């Protein structure tokens, strides 16, 4: 796990809240949400390309090129959304000889038009763009198989719908602006599910969770009214396309078995701050559901 924070990271550069100030003081920082995954330990894929990508790659020895070569073990990027905290890092990969990106149709269009990173990268690297379709597994290098799970219609704010749907409407017209991935080894069962943005607990997600070893989930907010409570704004977690931890925990309790980890933690989320009194208060409920908060740098060997 290369990063476990929501957009902005922890601390966020312009935030002096208790949590951000503590992170600055103690060094308990979190980079923005990003995962590297491999089935054979040789061919690796990024899930999301965070704005912190360069330091995240440097911190992972598995992702370094063999000495004397430029043979990066990175074989491509899978996007769970077109949000800036998931896509800005694509620019950091421009030195690659080739770059393969998998994204759903609306995200792919957004990255060619509203945020034209695709045409921008073209003079730098030979990019291959692939459309991901929910429910249709993609075979990747090294025996890794990824199946997208449609999770919501929340558009990035930069791609607000000209027809008048509010930007970021999680109930927007397309359900695959946001996806998660169910990862298997070729011919094997689900080993991991990654869903850092989760507007709703969909039937496909419910099925994917049932046979997974590890499930990494949206932990942006602890409760639906967290942001309103902490910043005085009116936006709910659900309204921003994020199912709060308090609202996904009952689903975890219904589906015991996998190891659950929460990621994409916003800096307002008390769970992001190890040792905070609120995190301690929530710990028993998490433990009862087999869940924990993910940490940057965690290596999960399945
Ligand atoms: C989100 O996860 O809701 C987005 O990344 C928010 C943002 O950074 O604009
Ligand atoms: Mn985000
Ligand atoms: Zn803060």
Write up this protein.
With 302 residues, this protein is of the alpha/beta class. Helix content is 22%, strand content 21%. It is built from nine helices and twelve strands. A seven-stranded mixed β-sheet has the order 6-7-8-9-10-11-12. The chain is globular. The protein binds D-malate, manganese (II) ion and zinc ion (ZN). Manganese (II) ion (MN) is lined by residues 6-7, 83, 85, 264.
Summed up, what is this model?
The chain has helices at residues 18-26, 53-58, 84-87, 105-110, 117-121, 203-210, 226-231, 245-254, 277-288, and strands at 35-37, 44-47, 74-78, 98-104, 126-132, 138-139, 144-152, 178-185, 190-195, 214-218, 259-263, 291-293. With 302 residues, it is an alpha/beta fold.
Topology record:
Blueprint: H1 18-26, E1 35-37, E2 44-47, H2 53-58, E3 74-78, H3 84-87, E4 98-104, H4 105-110, H5 117-121, E5 126-132, E6 138-139, E7 144-152, E8 178-185, E9 190-195, H6 203-210, E10 214-218, H7 226-231, H8 245-254, E11 259-263, H9 277-288, E12 291-293
Parallel strand pairs: 2-3, 3-4, 4-5, 9-10, 10-11, 11-12
Antiparallel strand pairs: 1-2, 6-7, 7-8, 8-9
Zinc ion binds at residues 11-12, 15, 17, 19-20, 267.
Q: What percentage of amino acids are in beta strands?
A: 15-25%
Kindly provide the radius of gyration, computed on alpha-carbon positions and rounded to a whole number of angstroms: 18 Å
| SSE series | HEEHEHEHHEEEEEHEHHEHE
Spell out which ligands are present.
D-malate, manganese (II) ion, zinc ion
Q: What is the helix fraction of residues, given as a range? A: 10-25%
Number of helices: 9
Helices and strands: which structural class?
A: alpha/beta
Q: In terms of per-residue confidence, which ranges show pLDDT below 50 for 5 or more consecutive residues?
A: none
Please report the total strand number as a whole number: 12
Major pleated sheet:
7 strands, mixed
Query: Please, what is the average pLDDT?
Result: 93
Give the N-terminus to C-terminus distance in angstroms: 14 Å
Order of strands in the sheet with the most strands? 6-7-8-9-10-11-12
Shape summary: globular
């Amino acid at each position: 796990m290369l990063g476990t924070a929501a957009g902005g990271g922890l601390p966020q550069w312009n935030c002096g809240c208790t949590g951000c100030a503590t992170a600055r003081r103690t060094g308990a920082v979190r980079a923005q949400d990003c995962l590297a995954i491999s089935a054979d330990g040789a061919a690796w894929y990024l899930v999301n390309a965070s704005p912190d990508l360069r330091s995240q790659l440097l911190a992972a020895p598995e992702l370094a090129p063999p000495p004397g070569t430029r043979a990066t073990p990175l074989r491509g990027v899978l996007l769970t959304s077109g949000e800036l905290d998931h896509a800005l890092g694509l620019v950091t990969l421009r030195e690659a000889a080739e770059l393969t990106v998998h994204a759903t149709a609306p995200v792919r269009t957004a990255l060619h038009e509203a945020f034209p990173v695709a045409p921008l990268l073209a003079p730098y690297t030979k990019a291959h763009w692939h459309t991901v379709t929910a429910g249709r597994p993609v075979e990747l290098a090294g025996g890794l198989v990824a199946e997208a799970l449609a999770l919501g219609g929340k558009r990035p704010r930069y791609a607000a719908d000209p027809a008048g749907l509010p930007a970021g409407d999680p109930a927007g017209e397309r359900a695959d602006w946001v996806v998660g991935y169910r990862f298997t080894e070729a011919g094997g069962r689900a080993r991991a599910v990654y869903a850092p943005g989760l507007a709703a607990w969909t039937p496909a997600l419910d099925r994917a969770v049932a046979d997974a070893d590890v499930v990494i989930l949206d932990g942006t907010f602890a409760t639906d009214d967290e942001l309103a409570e902490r910043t005085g704004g009116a936006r709910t977690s659900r309204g921003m396309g994020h199912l709060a931890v308090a609202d996904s925990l009952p689903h975890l309790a219904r589906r015991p078995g996998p190891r659950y980890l929460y990621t994409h933690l916003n800096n307002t989320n008390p769970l992001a701050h190890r040792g905070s009194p609120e995190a301690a208060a929530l710990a028993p409920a998490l433990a009862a559901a087999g869940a924990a908060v993910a940490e940057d740098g965690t290596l999960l060997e399945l």
